[in-house]
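Here is an idea for our session: we take a single protein and study its fold together. Which protein we use is up to you, so please pick one and set it down. Once you have written the record down, we can walk along the chain together:
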Amino acid sequence: MTLSINAAFDSGNIRLIAIDGDRVDLEIVPDHQSDFFQWFHFRVAGARGRTLTFRIMNAGQAAYAFGWPGYRARVSTDRAAWRLTDGHYADGVFSFTHAFEGDVAWFAYFAPYSMERHHDLIARMAGKPGVAHRELGQTLDGRAIDLLTLGEGGKQVWLYARQHPGESMAEWWMEGALEKLTDPADATAQALRSKATLHLVPNMNPDGSFRGHLRTNAAGVNLNREWHAPTLERSPEVFHVRAAMDATGVDFAMDVHGDEAIPANFLAGFEGIPRWTDEQGEKFYNYGRRLAAATPLFQLEQGYPKSAPGQANPSMSTNQLAERFGAVAMTLEMPFKDHDPSPDAAFGWSPERCKALAHACLDTLAGMIDEL
């Protein structure tokens, strides 16, 4: 059979360079009007009984090339379970091998979360008792910016994900959070809903998600560098979400992401904002300590350096919201690799564990919601 490489689908990204026997040379396509790239997602057909080696030839020019060592690609034959393959990085080339038992398989940087699944999530959750849906606005490609709101309490909680579209683990986390919050048998979730109003934006960047981008929207703009001055021309996603936040106020905010290099889950805070107070900062640190005590899926040892006093970047959402509202704001980072403190040899960091972490995050929030 003829070997076929295809990425012409929702969140697909790859370009075929050459096929030489059982070796397939590929390159990742940069985000539109941007130099960012690292996300890949493609299908291979006509390979039954063959063992193929795939080489991503431009891996060394990727946005976070330092993240390739120790990384392993995901493979699926049913687009439901995404297992780890092998992985090797040398001389600017990332390669992996797969033995095909069937005719077709899919490969991706992380388990994809398609826009069709996003629409299914919105439909399922908008139909739950006590959940309100609102379209905040539209993207440059005309896609809806969806907001789900639930809860009756006075504390204003904002959870938003996938500013960087290639970080698909963020929307898996969101799916887990929404499932917990709408579970009528979950007493902790019900208690949280009684004390807080929760606003969830499951996907901040639907254009980039569909286009197969790593980090930017349809205009090649990194949304998490727009929060100081968003515009409808460059960043309507941030413009509309920030306006909705201005209307409600924000007591607690979590921006959900993925990190290419660090093999662990961690939080980044708002150190360095002009109006930093130790009281506000301690609430953030307390949240992290409680989360680490609650689940082996979170740790405190690895993470990003803290900004020096007065040096926080106001264009990033966590800093902007902490400064703008005095909120306890934070960025949650999950790995493209495995979670080394609690590894899984078959699946690495997976959609199921994204959901489990979301449950732990909400349980932790419920335990300190009165302190915000």
Observations:
- The domain at 4-108 is CATH 2.60.40.3120 (Immunoglobulin-like).
